[in-house]
Design brief:
Helices cover 74% and strands 0% of the residues. The termini are far apart.
Amino acid sequence: MRLMSTLTRLGLIFLAGAMITVLGTSELWDEEPKEITTLDLANTMLDDWALPLLILGVLMAMAMMGAAYLVRDERRENLEWEQRGEDA
């Protein structure tokens, strides 16, 4: 267990170093920033990110259905109470 914890920490440190190296030397930062409008955002989301957003929506829907399933209470007295009604 201690070995896995140490390997995880080392992996995170390596990942952070790699990200800093890649982002620090990118030519992306040399460009002049342009003003982004809501139309640009909408076009980007619906053109470039349509499939990832769809997949994310499906995953979130599955998570909500799973949470609703786990919250259900199926004890016998609760099921009978639901069948009879409140005033019975």
